[in-house]
Design goal:
Neuraminidase; four-stranded antiparallel sheet; mainly beta; five-stranded antiparallel sheet; globular; 381 residues
């Protein structure tokens, strides 16, 4: 009895229920199409974790949507909130969202944040930067680099807000259409519903497709996006892969091409929430880029990343998507920039917000919960 009590106390300390009702149990072994893996609770005690980035020493920075940044040690210990975080509007889907390291972080200690920020006229998607102190205890020099104008007075949804650096060192930032006015995604004078390509200081990147066009914002790389919450670099090709929510179906994974239009809200493979057609009511149209993959019914894909390490040889080069509804993990087998197979894993259990590869070759998942966790997938052998 004492041994069972000690086990129960250990599981409680990990923040996991010691019963069959728990959606993801500590050290659970799961069978997949390409072997078995173990689900371990790596860290607990987080509030709606949204974005994360691994430091060179293996520690992890994690954002919490209410507006906090925490440092997670390699043993899963979670720090107190770090001071110096940008101010956010934590309402609806807004708050402190993504975090990314500068490519030269090892020498500059520079971080980038995407968030919902207040501005004249309302709220918008904002890109900010700061420097992590040498002892990793605080942020210094926090400042705004870009506001995805115009601000919007109504609605607190669809901020997009993923950051990734391409192989050319340029920063790509996804912005949502902000929900209230779908047509913003097609307006080249508006930064909502786009993927932006920027220099490190937030200015338009050299070579952008709409630079110099009258009435168009030079920051825009692609347009016609609804709520793009995933950006990743394909390690096999260097291409930028974008992941976005549809409405009632029509979720997409897209291969980004400079200047391309991805259709929202002209066309969609889904329908609106009331079942009515979106835009033309068609799924495709001339001049609109086709998705690599789409889902109806929806899987609500949020963050996504490629697995590149050696811990799971059968998964190397696969694209993993964190799914919210139905909750779970989607594994896509890639052949270059083509999707050739799909597997759904840990399905129907816990809402996943982001998935990212660790420097140890393992896969880490942020759960979308007010008692949020970081789960780690480990080989079962």
């Amino acid at each position: 009895m004492r041994r069972a009590a000690r086990l129960l106390a250990l599981l409680s300390g990990l923040g996991l229920a010691a019963c069959a009702a728990d959606p993801v149990r500590a050290q659970e072994v799961v069978r997949s199409e390409r072997g078995a893996f173990r689900v371990a609770a790596f860290a607990t005690g987080l509030d709606r974790p949204w974005g994360a980035a691994f430091l060179p020493d293996g520690r992890m920075l994690v954002t919490e949507r209410p507006g906090r940044l925490r440092l997670v040690e390699t043993d899963g210990t979670v720090s107190a909130p770090l001071p110096g975080v940008p101010e956010v509007v934590a309402a609806g889907q807004g708050g402190l969202l993504d975090v990314a390291l500068a490519p030269d972080f090892a020498s500059t200690r520079q971080l980038y944040f995407c968030l919902a920020g207040a501005a004249p006229g309302g709220v918008l998607t904002r890109l900010a930067t700061a420097t992590l102190s040498p002892d990793s205890s605080r942020l210094d020099g926090t400042r705004t680099l870009l506001d995805a104008t115009p601000a919007q007075s109504s609605g607190r949804n669809h901020y997009g807000c993923r950051i990734v650096f391409g192989r050319d060192g340029k920063l790509l930032l996804s912005t949502g259409d902000r929900y209230a006015n779908k047509s913003r995604a097609q307006d080249l004078a508006d930064l909502a519903g786009k993927v932006l390509r920027l220099e490190r200081d937030g200015s338009p990147a050299a070579g952008n497709p709409f630079a110099g066009r009258h009435g168009a914002r030079a920051e825009i790389f692609t347009l016609g996006h609804r709520n793009p919450q995933g950006l990743a670099v394909n390690p096999a090709t260097g291409s930028i892969i974008e992941i976005e929510f549809g409405a009632r179906g029509g979720d997409e994974v897209n291969l980004l091409r400079a200047g391309a239009n991805y259709g929202w809200p002209i066309v969609s493979y889904g329908t609106d929430y009331d079942g009515s057609p979106i835009g033309t009511g068609r799924a495709s149209a001339p001049g609109i880029e086709e998705p690599l993959r789409h889902w109806t019914p929806a899987v609500s894909p949020s963050g996504g990343n490629f697995l590149t390490g050696d811990a799971f040889p059968a998964w190397r080069g696969n694209l993993f998507l964190a799914a919210l509804n139905p909750p779970g993990l989607v594994r896509l087998t890639m052949d270059g920039d083509r999707v050739v197979a799909e597997e759904r894993m840990l399905w129907g259990r816990t809402r996943f917000r982001q998935v990212l590869p660790g420097p140890d070759g393992l896969l880490y998942i942020l759960t979308d919960e007010d008692r949020g966790r970081i789960l780690r997938l480990e080989p079962a052998n």
